[in-house]
TrEMBL record:
One of its GO terms (molecular function) is ADP binding. Pfam families: BTAD (PF03704), TPR_12 (PF13424), Trans_reg_C (PF00486). Belongs to the AfsR/DnrI/RedD regulatory family. TPR repeats lie at residues 793-826, 833-866. Residues 1-93 bind DNA. This is OmpR/PhoB-type domain-containing protein. It comes from Actinophytocola xanthii.
Length: 921
């Protein structure tokens, strides 16, 4: 197996033992960087997709990721990237072959060094790996936003520590001043660097310059951050004024007035699993020993996510820094009983610190002041668990020094704004950590026996530690994890399964969050329980609750703050599975009187919003399928431009599919198939059709079961189109014939014309030219009777395909050209783009390469203008083949490469064919 060396701390470098390996720029490099940064660990497909496509993952992220990983494997060779059970990939590489891991390993060695000289040597070795801005030429939003800043912070800290050590061991300060000036110019808000510069100037005897440096940093901090220099820098300034010589960070330690204080932290979690990133992030928030202001950290997150476990575990790890007092108080913000009042909390804390009862005043302000005085000068850690709001916490904060950790289900924004708290959101455990937690609870052998079941259990538990621990307890009594999967499969009973009694249930935890809501937020939460999908846009939520958009926005903001809802994108919200199930329970109990009205109101909204979006994409389409459903009471979005409707479909697509499928399962087939039909244009442009077989097949079954005959016809026609696009002409003919028979039976003349045209197309494909011509003529007659102006052009297009299938390419060209002329008169660029594609193919069969290229290029321009990226790539693939035949392989390589990139992104099966064509060049 080849060995590799990868450098990311600067411009991209990737070398193999046999020489440099070229990894194409773009997403392949970002994917490799993602796997390298998590070397020897499993990374889930979902995480990789978020990192490779942070702005907008493709619709079929899993298929696209599989394609990209396959390309990497070909470049890297066997045994490097492994597929892991339950999904995800792992890259195997020695950490010392990756500069990022080597850099961090050396920093760890420096922190643990027994002497300054060894620490300095490790720091220098680490900093030598730094070649510039990390990931400089990868152009990745994820790397630039989430990874590079942390590495830069680590580099700055290491550089500052190196300079401090060099100053301490007697390095001539003149050697350090120029570097420090450059660093303070580049990072003007880094007080530690300014302190080193002031100290170096002072030691060099340049007292006036040291004072000027302090003046400069003070101006910077005031103007840019609105703050004064910290105590350490201010003390150094005083020493320069007094002509003292104490180096920064060398002040005498504070001596506490008591030798031992309370040790109230709950016991550490024996099975604590994962959270490495969160623990490192919390460590980065720890102050230096000279800090005067208290450090306040607020951990917020949904019920059951493990906030308390994380806070307690981290507090134990860092308790040695706070030997004077370690206080713990459950504020009971959510749970049985009333929340602890600030008056009671201050009294409890004062008693723990040894203040006699008779000395504790009755007034809250006085108690809070006494608490600050008692804590002053002490290195204290305070863990305030399960807070309701910022007002409950504020009186308990120390005035000087110390560390306060607060946990809450609510986002304590006020604590961040007014008190400078660092707010950290604790999210659900990643997939690998969730499985590890399950294995720790039930035993690794149980998980190893059935890793697939373990992954399903994790998903059913929504990656919530509380749910996983409850399930693990049940699994101890079950015969296998597969039995646990079966017990959790029933959504109606899932919350019952996640009940361990004695208030240790997910339902109880969620209930306390719900009861804490105000009336407007509670009403919105109940309505969300009626919504057929997990995610919802703001306008749909306002329709669901039947309130103005501004009112819905305020209610959703409260739900986001309470971690009952997550805001995934602008104006878009999501309920996790278990929260949705609880919301549905509440809705069933409290929304019985207006349940049906609410559901029909939101289904009307989705149907007509999707219709308007489809109208912008396909303005010449007849929409007789909407009858007899009338416009909704609520206003629905209008789309002046195709790009706006495309973006709307991209945001709503998964939600629309869920809504339509829910309606099909719940006796509302009329809504189901109509919503599905509004999606066909976007479905065709954006999504590979194999997904459509199951989707439209389900809606056909629902329409048939409910007696929706017109729905039967439309869904049968859609299935025929799907199978034709897949190359199954015989099967598609059967569907078109069945659809045509249904439309004849119900007297739906437009449906008859539509299916007659499709039968002309499929008979031409099957080589039955005469039948194709007859159907085309009948199509023309039907469309003329309906006064459908696009109809004759579509009939000519069908007839042209019949001629082409029979090898009559000159007659095909004539039909296609007449159709193009008609479509241009109608200003129908969409249908014109497809007809130009057919025209180009006919010219290619005649070996008239210049005309074929011209037709393809005209089609490409139209598809690009219309935003039909998938079909643009399809035409590019045909153009590439013609360029090869015409003797232009270099041009063809560029065109086919562009087609391959887009087809791969969409997971289109034709990507493989294009890749083979490229390989043959």
């Amino acid at each position: 197996m080849l060995s590799y060396e990868i450098a990311l701390l600067g411009p991209w470098e990737f070398r193999a033992s046999t020489g440099e390996v070229t990894i194409p720029a773009g997403r392949l490099r970002v994917l490799l960087a993602s796997l390298v940064l998590s070397a020897n660990q499993t990374v889930s497909v979902d995480v990789l997709a978020e990192q490779v496509w942070p702005e907008r993952p493709p619709m079929r992220a899993r298929g696209s990721m599989h394609t990209y990983v396959g390309r990497l494997r070909k470049l890297l060779g066997p045994g490097v990237i492994h597929t892991r059970p339950g999904g995800g990939y792992q890259l195997t590489i020695a950490p010392d072959r990756v500069d990022v891991h080597r850099f961090r390993s050396l920093l760890t060695r420096a922190a643990q060094a027994p002497s300054p000289a060894e620490e300095l040597a490790s720091l220098n070795a680490a900093l030598e790996l730094w070649r510039g801005t990390p990931f400089a030429d990868l152009y990745s939003t994820w790397l630039d936003r989430d990874v590079a800043p942390r590495l830069v912070e680590e580099w700055l800290a290491a550089t500052g520590r190196r300079l401090e050590l060099e100053l301490d061991v007697g390095c001539p300060p003149e050697r350090l001043i120029a570097e420090l000036r450059e660093l303070t110019d580049q990072y003007p808000a880094q007080e530690a660097l300014w302190a080193l510069l002031v100290a170096a100037l002072h030691r060099a005897g340049r007292r006036a310059e040291a004072l000027e440096a302090y003046r400069r940093v003070r101006v910077v901090l005031r103007e840019e951050l609105g703050i004064e220099p910290g105590e350490a820098l201010a003390r150094l300034h005083r020493e320069v004024l007094l002509d003292g010589h104490t180096a920064p960070g060398k002040e005498a330690p504070v001596v506490p007035t008591c030798s031992a204080g309370p040790r109230q932290l709950p016991h550490d979690i024996t099975r604590f699993t994962g959270r490495d990133e969160e623990l490192a992030g919390l460590d980065s928030l720890l102050p230096d020993e000279s800090a005067q202001a208290p450090t306040i950290i607020s951990l917020d997150g949904p019920a059951g996510v493990g906030k308390t476990a994380l806070a307690v575990h981290w507090a134990h790890r860092r308790a040695h820094r706070y030997p004077d007092a370690q206080l713990y108080l459950n504020l009971r913000g959510y749970g049985p009983g009333d929340p602890v009042t600030p008056e009671a909390a201050t009294e409890t804390m004062l008693r723990a610190l040894g203040v006699a009862s008779e000395l504790i005043p009755g007034d809250l302000d006085e108690r809070s002041a006494l608490l600050r005085s008692t804590l002053s000068g002490h290195r204290a850690l305070i863990l305030l668990d399960n807070a309701r709001d910022a007002d409950q916490v504020r009186p308990l904060l120390p005035g000087v020094g110390g560390l306060v950790v607060v946990t809450s289900r609510n986002q304590l924004r006020g604590l961040s704004i007014q008190d400078g708290a660092h707010r950290v959101t604790v999210r659900r455990l990643p997939g690998a950590d969730s499985v590890r937690l399950l294995a720790a609870a039930v035993g690794p052998d149980r998980v190893d026996e059935d890793p697939t079941a373990a992954s399903v259990v994790v998903k059913q538990c929504d990656h919530l530690p509380l749910a996983l621990v409850i399930v693990a307890e049940r699994a101890q009594r079950a015969g296998s994890l597969a039995e646990v999967v079966a017990a959790l499969e029933d959504e109606q009973a899932r919350l019952d399964t996640l009940d361990a009694g004695e208030d240790n249930s997910l339902r109880a935890a969620l209930a306390w969050s719900y009861r804490a809501l105000g009336p407007g937020a509670a009403a919105m939460f109940r309505r969300l329980g009626l919504h057929p999908a997990n995610d919802i846009g703001l306008d749909a939520a306002a329709t669901l609750a039947d309130v103005p958009v501004a009112t819905a926005q305020a209610a959703l903001d409260h739900l986001v703050a309470a971690h009952l809802v997550e805001q995934r994108q602008h104006r878009r919200y999501e309920l996790h599975d278990l929260v949705r199930l609880y919301a549905a329970e509440i809705a069933e109990q409290e929304c019985r009187t207006d349940r049906d009205t609410t559901i029909r109101r939101v289904l009307d909204w989705y149907l007509y919003a999707a219709t308007n979006a489809d109208r912008a994409l396909n303005p010449h389409r007849r929409r007789e399928f909407l009858e007899p459903y009338g416009p909704p009471e609520r206003q629905v979005p209008e789309f002046a431009e195709r790009s706006a409707s495309t973006r709307w479909f991209e945001r709503e697509f998964d939600c629309l599919r869920s809504v339509a499928c829910w309606a099909a399962r719940n006796g509302l087939a009329g809504y189901a198939w109509r919503i599905a039909i509004t999606m066909t244009t976007f479905f065709d442009y954006r999504i590979p059709w194999p997904d459509g077989v199951q989707f439209y097949g389900a809606h056909h079954a629902a329409a048939r079961a409910s007696g929706e005959r017109k729905g039967e016809g439309y869904t049968l026609n859609s299935l025929g189109c799907i199978h034709f696009d897949q190359g199954s002409a015989e099967l598609s003919r059967t569907y078109f014939q069945r659809a045509h028979a249904v439309f004849e039976e119900v007297g739906h003349r437009f449906g008859q014309a539509m299916t007659t045209g499709n039968l002309s197309m499929v008979h031409g494909q099957l080589g039955q030219t005469e039948l194709a011509r007859q159907y085309a003529a009948e199509t023309l007659r039907l469309y003329e009777d309906l006064d459908y102006r696009r109809g004759p052009a579509m009939a000519l297009d069908n007839l042209g395909m019949a001629h082409a299938a029979a090898g009559e390419y000159e007659r095909a060209v004539e039909c296609f050209q007449r159709a193009v002329d008609l479509l241009r008169d109608l200003d129908d660029p969409q249908t014109e783009a497809f007809t130009l594609l057919n025209l180009g193919k006919a010219y290619a069969r005649l070996a008239d390469h210049p005309r074929a290229v011209r037709a393809f290029r005209q089609s490409i321009v139209l598809h690009r203008t219309l935003g039909n990226a998938r079909w643009e790539a399809t035409v590019l693939a045909d153009l590439g083949e013609v360029l090869v035949d015409a003797g232009h392989p270099e041009h063809a390589r560029v065109v086919l490469g562009a087609a391959l990139a887009t087809l791969t992104e969409f997971g289109d099966p034709r990507a493989e064919q294009v890749q083979d064509g490229l390989a043959a060049l």
